[in-house]
Design brief:
Layout: H1 19-28, E1 29-30, E2 33-34, E3 38-50, E4 54-65, E5 70-81, E6 95-101, E7 110-117, H2 119-122
Parallel strand pairs: 5-7
Antiparallel strand pairs: 1-2, 3-4, 3-6, 4-5, 6-7
Length: 123
């Protein structure tokens, strides 16, 4: 005799949608763009190029060359997302701070956190 197995149906509890859920959904979407979480490394650099939604920063660092047992100067360029609320206050030549985030495009993996100094304050 073939025994028939009983199929147990699982009841899935659905959370009732309230005001708290709606508020958290609104927090995720700010205007037309979504909030981008930050994680990882933080860099400070000088703005060398500015575009409508991104900018390029450059900063110098010292790299140890094992062959010659000396340090060599090197420059690194990073492309970063420029939030809409910071577009007017950041200009070319300013010292800014960027932090790593999820990949936003092929070259953009950082987002601008804050402006540290103006172009005039640096010199």
């Amino acid at each position: 005799m073939a025994e028939k197995r009983k199929k147990t149906e699982r009841k899935v509890k659905e959370k009732p949608k309230g005001k708290a859920d709606e508020a958290s959904a609104k927090e995720k979407i700010v205007g037309a763009e979504r909030k981008v979480g930050t994680r990882g490394r933080v860099f400070e650099g000088i703005v060398i190029k500015k575009f409508p939604k991104r900018l390029t920063i450059e900063f110098g660092r010292m790299i140890y060359v094992r062959k010659y047992e000396r340090y060599a100067k090197s420059k690194t360029k990073i492309h970063a997302r420029l939030p809409e609320n910071m577009e007017k206050e950041i200009n070319i030549g300013d010292l800014i701070q960027v932090q790593e985030c999820r990949p936003l495009s092929k070259i953009i993996h950082f987002i601008v956190i804050k402006k540290i100094k103006d172009k005039e304050e640096i010199k």
